[in-house]
From TrEMBL:
<feature type="transmembrane region" description="Helical">
    <location>
        <begin position="23"/>
        <end position="45"/>
    </location>
</feature>
<keyword id="KW-1133">Transmembrane helix</keyword>
<keyword id="KW-0472">Membrane</keyword>
<feature type="transmembrane region" description="Helical">
    <location>
        <begin position="87"/>
        <end position="109"/>
    </location>
</feature>
<keyword id="KW-0812">Transmembrane</keyword>
<feature type="transmembrane region" description="Helical">
    <location>
        <begin position="57"/>
        <end position="81"/>
    </location>
</feature>
<protein>
    <recommendedName>
        <fullName>DUF5658 domain-containing protein</fullName>
    </recommendedName>
</protein>
Length: 120
């Protein structure tokens, strides 16, 4: 892929293909929109304590800040890992985001989660 050099002269290799990175940002954005929705409807709530903490501090901007922090962490980790681990990592994150975003959208639309809780 494309090697880039940062300010310190360290060569970084973008993880995966352009389509994989696009898929990551697409499902990340859907998850972000659904998470913002959790704070605007009375029947759903966010479980992530970092997102809840930032929401309490900054309102909906805190939810967006949390999502940007998570995306930044994924991107940074993907850049640091060597091949093929970087591609595998990004693929795993895309799958997780797709699962979580699907569940969140279904929950917001139907008021029933796609994934039923494992606890009684």
């Amino acid at each position: 892929m494309v090697d880039t050099a940062d300010a310190f002269g360290i060569g970084l290799d973008r993880p995966g293909t352009t389509s994989l990175r696009t898929a990551f940002f697409a499902v990340w954005f859907v998850d972000l929109v659904a998470t913002v929705g959790f704070f605007t409807v009375p029947y759903a709530y966010e479980l992530n304590p970092v997102t809840v903490f930032l929401h309490d501090l900054f309102g909906l901007a805190g939810v967006v800040l949390a999502a940007v922090i998570y995306a930044g962490a994924v991107i940074a980790i993907g850049y640091v890992l060597s091949r093929p681990f970087d591609v595998g990592f990004v693929v795993a994150i895309v799958c997780c985001y797709a699962l979580f975003a699907s569940n969140n959208v279904v929950l917001l639309v139907s008021r029933e989660p796609l994934l039923t809780p494992l606890m009684p």
